[in-house]
Amino acid sequence: MSLKIVVCIKQVPVSNNLKIDPVTKNLVRSGEAGVMNPYDKNAIEAALRLKEEWGGEITLLSMGPPDFEMTLRQGLAMGCDDAVLLSSRQFGGADTLATGYVLAQAIKELGNVDLVLFGRQSVDADTSQVGPIVSEFLDWPQITFVSELHSHTNNTMTATRLLENMQQKIEFQLPAVVTVRSEMNEPRYPTPRNIQQSYKKTIRIWDENSLPVDADRIGLKGSPTVVRSVWAPEKEAKATTFLTGTADEAVRELLIQMRATNLL
Q1: What share of the chain is helix, strand, coil (3-state, %, to 5)?
Q2: Electron transfer flavoprotein alpha/beta-subunit N-terminal domain: which residues (predicted)?
């Protein structure tokens, strides 16, 4: 049986010099250079290996401004079949709940999806919330922190979850939502041919009019999370102590000072 897989990916900023919208207190993503979230590459690789074993098709799904297309092209160059970008000003400022709602509605619109894959988390927000939220909106099983995906028979798969102090093996029915760890695989590099082919593939652009979404549940209006303020931590000016004397005297003095500050 072939699989219809959706891999949800995110573009994350490259620079540390990020701008915050003074009104919404959200990160300004438009116009900022970005790359694919590293964990999402593991999700794509997992999808590609399942496709190689069982057949099927892989659709990439992302939400963001138009320049996110470049990140989707990277996924297409790895070997995915097509892509959908959810892009609209109405989606802007979404927290994890509003983001998960829109992604879930898009997955329903795609139809007949067997498996949705996410990276374990994004490196810019580190919440690990969107995958589980999508599973709740879809009312599908969720399996998080997966390091292995096993056999697919009679719409059943098994997974190994790598947790802090243990491993857990789970058998689950499809359709399902799975978030994967970086330990699962080593993402492949796009071949020159696949890079060339990726620019021949169409990326569909969907907005709020393309999906059956409730206007009160998207973007800022649909986001119960409120950022009250954003600030940079103050840096303390620390004095530098120079050690004098011979090398042996300097080492003895260093050890004394380290013991005095409980560093030894």
Answers
A1: 30, 25, 45
A2: 24-215
**Cβ pair 62, 83 in contact under 8 A:** yes
Torsion over CA: 161, 166, 167, 172 (sign): negative
Best CA proximity match to 82, nearest among 50, 102, 59: 59
Rounded distance, CA 209 to CA 230, Å? 33
The string of DSSP letters for 100-157 reads: HHHHHHHHHHH-S--EEEEES--TTT----HHHHHHHHHT--EEEEEEEEEEEETTEE
Contacts by 243-247 with C-beta closer than 8 Å and gap 24+?
Answer: none
| Structure-block tokens of residue 165 | 């102090």
How high is the pLDDT of residue 32? 63
Residue 205 has pLDDT above 80, yes or no: yes
Answering whether pTM is above 0.85, one says no
What was the pLDDT predicted at 1?
66
Mind listing the pLDDT tens digit for each residue in 3-26? 999 999 999 987 565 667 766 666
> Phi first, then psi: what are they for 217, rounded to 5°?
-115, 10
Three-class secondary structure of residue 54 per DSSP: helix
Distance of alpha carbon 98 from its chain centroid, rounded?
15
Is residue 191 within 8 Å of residue 78, measured between CB atoms? no
